[in-house]
Design goal:
By secondary structure, the chain is of the alpha/beta class. It is built from 14 helices and 14 strands. The chain has an eight-stranded parallel barrel with strand order 2-3-4-5-6-9-10-11, surrounded by six helices. The chain has one domain: Alpha-Beta Barrel (TIM Barrel), CATH 3.20.20. The two termini are 38 Å apart. Beta-D-glucopyranose binds next to loops. The site of beta-D-glucopyranose (BGC) has 10 residues, from loops.
Length: 447
C-alpha cells in the first residue's frame, strides 16, 4: 500500500532538550542540591546523585543523539558550577562546557544554550536571589563571562527557562527551593527582577555576538474554563491564561511591567528577543471560584493522562498556542514538548500527534523552525525525583545503563526521514492510521 508522508522543511531543526541540574550530576553548589538533602522536599526523598552523568560523560548521550539523526540540542549551563563563589569563575568548569559544546558541533548537533534553568548558586540565595535587585548585575556578569569563554560555540541562546513556572513553583506553590520569602509579595518582586535579568543578558549577548539568536523558553499551557461553565469562570480563565501565558511575552515586546500596578517601563526590555521558545505540555481547566487551588479542576474524566497525573495529552493545544503567538511576528522554536511515560505506552502517539500539529502549522506558513523533544534521556525530574521518566532513552540511574525506548527509534525514523509517515504509524502507533493519516484531526478553536 502507498505510504502517506507529511514532509517537514529541509532546514527544520530536529532536536532534544535537557537541563544542567537534571542531567549533569553532583551539582553540589546549587540550591537544588541543598534542597534535596532536606526531608520531604523530593518525592520519596530521592536524590539527583550522578543524575544522567553528563558532567563525566555527556558524550555517550550525544553519540546517541547523533545516531538518532538529530541536528540540534538544547542544554543549560549550571551557574553554580561556573561561578561557585561570587566573582570566582571556575576555568575548569568552563573548559568542560567547551568540550561538551564542541562535542555537539563535532556530531553535527547545533547547541541552544539556556543560562538559567531553575537552579541557583547557593551564594545567590544568601543575597536574596530573584527577590532582590542585586541579582541583575550578577546575572549580567555571569552572562558576560559565558559569552567571552563559550560564545563562539553558541549560535542560539535562551536567557531564562520558564520564568512564570519558576515564580509559581518557587514563590507560590513552594515545591522549588528555597522555601524563604514566599507568597505573592515575593513573586511580585521576582517578576520584574527576572525581566531585568532577561534584558541585561539579551543585550550583553547581542553586544558581543550580534549574530547570535536570543530568546526565552516560555511554558504555555491551554488554560480554559470547563465547557458549560459560567461567564465568570470564562472571564477568570482568560485572566489566568493572560497572566501565565501572555504577560511575559507582552512585557518583552513592549517593555512594560504590568504588575503590581502602574504599568512601569523597564529600560531596554522592549523588543529584547529574536525568537520565541515554546515549551508545551498540556491543558488545564480553570474555574471560578478556584476551590482547592488554581489548577485543581484539571481535566475531563475520559482524558488521557500521563504518569503521576502530570497532565492531559492534548496535541491540538500546541497548534492553538502556536496560532496565539503569530501576532508577535517572531520565529518560533518548540523548545520543550514531552510526556512522562516510563513504559512508553503513550509517547509514540504523543510524538506523532504533536509533530502533526507542528506540520499543520508549518503548512499554513506559520514560522515554526524547530522541535526539541523533552527529553533525550531520563533525568532527575525536580521535586518528583526519578518517578517521572521523560526520556526517549531509558536510564537506570544506579547502573547508568541506557536502553532505547521504542519512541526513541520512532523519533530516529522521523529525524532521518524528516517526515511523519503512515509506515511509522503502522509500526509504532497503529491507532493513528485512522486519525492523522486517514481521518480528520479536530480543528482548533481560538484560545
Ligand atoms: C521544565 C523541565 C522539566 C519538564 C518536565 C519543564 O517545565 O523546563 O525542566 O523537566 O518541564 O516537567
Amino acid at each position: 500500500m502507498a505510504q502517506a508522508q507529511l514532509l517537514f522543511p529541509q532546514d527544520f531543526l530536529w532536536g532534544t532538550a535537557t537541563a544542567a541540574f537534571q542531567v549533569e550530576g553532583n551539582n553540589t553548589n546549587s540550591d537544588w542540591w541543598a534542597w534535596e538533602q532536606q526531608d520531604g522536599r523530593i518525592l520519596h526523598n530521592q536524590k539527583s546523585g550522578l543524575a544522567s552523568n553528563w558532567w563525566a560523560n555527556a558524550e555517550q548521550d550525544l553519540d546517541i543523539a547523533a545516531e538518532m539523526g538529530t541536528n540540534a540540542h538544547r542544554l543549560s549551563l549550571e551557574w553554580s558550577r561556573i561561578e561557585p563563589e561570587p566573582s570566582v569563575f571556575d576555568d575548569a568548569a568552563l573548559g568542560r562546557y567547551r568540550e561538551i559544546l564542541q562535542a555537539m558541533h563535532d556530531r553535527g548537533i547545533e547547541p541552544m544554550v539556556t543560562l538559567h534553568h531553575f537552579s541557583n548558586p547557593l551564594w545567590l540565595v544568601e543575597k536574596g536571589d530573584f527577590g532582590s535587585g542585586v541579582v541583575v548585575d550578577y546575572f549580567r556578569r555571569y552572562t558576560a563571562k559565558v559569552v567571552d569563554v563559550l560564545g563562539d560555540l553558541i549560535p542560539k541562546w535562551i536567557t531564562i527557562n520558564e520564568p512564570m513556572v519558576y515564580v509559581f513553583m518557587r514563590y507560590l506553590s513552594g515545591a522549588f527551593p528555597v522555601g524563604k520569602h514566599r507568597g505573592w509579595a515575593g513573586a511580585l518582586r521576582a517578576i520584574p527582577n527576572l525581566l531585568r535579568c532577561h534584558a541585561a543578558a539579551y543585550h550583553t549577548i547581542k553586544e558581543k555576538l550580534p549574530e547570535a539568536q536570543v530568546g526565552v523558553a516560555k511554558n504555555m499551557a491551554v488554560l480554559q474554563a470547563r465547557p458549560g461553565s459560567s461567564a465568570l469562570s470564562r472571564w477568570w480563565a482568560g485572566q489566568i491564561s493572560w497572566l501565565f501565558n501572555q504577560m511575559w511575552l507582552d512585557s518583552m515586546q513592549n517593555g512594560r511591567l504590568y504588575f503590581p500596578v502602574g504599568r512601569r517601563t523597564i529600560p531596554h526590555l522592549a523588543g529584547s528577543y529574536d525568537f520565541i521558545g515554546l515549551n508545551y505540555y498540556t491543558r488545564f481547566y480553570v474555574n471560578f471560584p478556584p476551590v482547592g487551588g488554581l489548577l485543581s479542576d484539571k481535566w475531563e474524566p475520559d482524558a488521557v493522562v500521563s504518569d503521576g497525573n502530570y497532565g492531559e495529552i492534548y496535541p491540538v493545544g500546541l497548534y492553538k498556542i502556536i496560532e496565539s503567538l503569530l501576532p508577535y511576528k517572531k520565529p518560533i522554536y518548540i523548545t520543550e514538548n514531552g510526556v512522562p511515560d516510563k513504559d512508553d505506552q503513550l509517547r509514540p502517539s504523543f510524538l506523532m500527534t504533536h509533530l502533526r500539529e507542528i506540520w499543520r502549522a508549518i503548512s499554513f506558513c506559520y514560522p515554526v523552525m524547530g522541535y526539541y523533544h523533552w527529553s533525550l534521556v531520563d533525568n532527575f525530574e525536580w521535586d518528583r525525583g526519578w518517578t517521572q521518566r521523560f526520556g526517549l532513552i531509558e536510564l537506570n540511574p544506579e547502573t547508568q545503563e541506557r536502553t532505547w525506548r521504542e519512541s526513541g527509534r520512532l523519533y530516529a525514523d522521523i529525524c532521518h526521514s524528516r517526515s511523519l509517515t503512515s509506515r511509522q504509524a503502522e509500526k509504532y502507533a497503529p491507532e493513528l492510521l485512522q486519525t492523522i493519516f486517514r481521518g480528520e484531526s479536530p480543528i482548533a478553536e481560538p484560545l
